Amino acid sequence: MPIPVLQNTADPADVVATLMREGAVVVENLVDAETVDAVCQELRPELDAKGLDQQGAFNGALTNRISNVLAVSPKAAALLDHDMVVSVANEVLLPYCANYRISSMTAIEVLPGEAAQALHRDDTPYPIDIAGMELQIGVMWSLNDFTPENGGTRIVTGSHRLLRSWHLPDLKNWDAAAMPKGSALFYLGSTWHGAGANETDGRRMGLINVYSLGWLRQEVNQYLTHPPEIAAKFAPRLRALLGYTTHSNGDDQLGHLRGGCAAWVKDPPEDPRYKGRNAVGTAEDAAAQSGL
Ligand SMILES: O=C(O)CCC(=O)C(=O)O
Ligand SMILES: [Fe+2]
After folding, report:
1. Distance separating alpha carbons of residues 140 and 205, to the nearest angstrom
2. Residue 276, pLDDT score
3. Any idea what DSSP says for residue 16?
4. Pairing between strand 136-142 and 184-188?
5. Structural domain of 60
């Protein structure tokens, strides 16, 4: 089935509805060419110097990859912390956590001649599979035009509807994302996908950002990859997304810090739908349990 496509004027609610129904959706032209070009310029030296360090069976032999994106490209903040991304991630993830984190951010440049990556789910590191609860949302930004020929991300639409402990989707049934530079392909952590083969003589340049529930361990250690002196340069919302805040301020608080840190966000972002939690372990509970 084809990957659905929406325009940048789309209501985030429609993006969410389409994403939840199909497992993926492209939103075309979500950022302008100047922003994309500035990010590419910042990423270039690191991609050239270290891009092939992560070669492997899964990552490919002809694919440049770097994970320290914000350390080398401060302008990528505009993509990581984009309002549409946050609006969509809020709807998908906040029913299941107080706040969520950037699990990984990876600039991925598929070079000419690269073979197709194996189709996979990004949520495989987590050994849980609960119907209806998404652990992650992925956002692939096209930093140049994506085509089926140059390695545009392949998606098995509808594959998120199957619990992996039950059966596999038909993995021959993929569609490759075709999207102009500056577009975003949203997909779920449970959606089967993978990079396509690059059969052209040009490069396919993307930035893929995965956001995961706030009580899960992040795939890439963001505190060491983006230490406080780097993280402190960004706005509080992005610092919180990196993990420089607690998960909740109540009794399901995780990751708290005693002492100072320039990047720390004292009050974690809190969504109204999370209110009503944190009601366990109060002084009233203790009194009632003591028969008072
Ligand atoms: O580069 C792409 O199109 C997808 C890469 C991917 O899914 C991954 O490495 O997990
Ligand atoms: Fe992936």
Report:
1. 10
2. 58
3. H
4. antiparallel
5. 5-289
State whether residue 97 is helix, strand or coil: coil
Residues 184 and 138: beta-carbon distance below 8 Å: no
Round to whole Å and give the CA distance between 282 and 269. Answer: 22
4 in contact with ligand 1, CB cutoff 6 A: no
Pairwise CA distance, residues 152 & 268, whole Å: 36
> Tokens for 196?
């396509």
Confidence (pLDDT) at 250: 79
Judging by beta carbons within 10 Å of its beta carbon (0-12, 13-18, 19+), is residue 86 exposed, middle or buried?
A: middle
The residue whose two tokens read 């350390």 is 71
How far does the centroid of ligand 2 lie from the alpha carbon of residue 255, in Å? Answer: 27
The overall longest dimension of the chain from CA atoms, in Å, is: 77
Kindly report the CATH number assigned to the domain that includes residue 200: 2.60.120.620
> What pTM, to 2 d.p., does this model score?
0.95
Distance 195 CA to ligand 1 centre (A): 5
Task: Kindly state the tokens that stand for 179.
Answer: 């999207």
Tally of domains in the chain: 1
Instruction: Report the amino acid identity of residue 159.
Output: S
Q: What is the mean pLDDT of residues 26-52?
A: 98
First CA to last CA distance, the chain: 62
Q: Does residue 206 line the site of ligand 1, with CB under 6 A?
A: yes
Give per-residue pLDDT as tens, 153-166: 999 999 999 988 77
- Average pLDDT of the segment spanning 236-251: 93
Closest atom, ligand 1, to C-alpha of 63:
1
Kindly give the distance from the C-alpha atom of residue 205 to the centroid of ligand 1, in angstroms, as a whole number.
Answer: 11
Cα distance between residue 132 and residue 114, in whole Å: 35
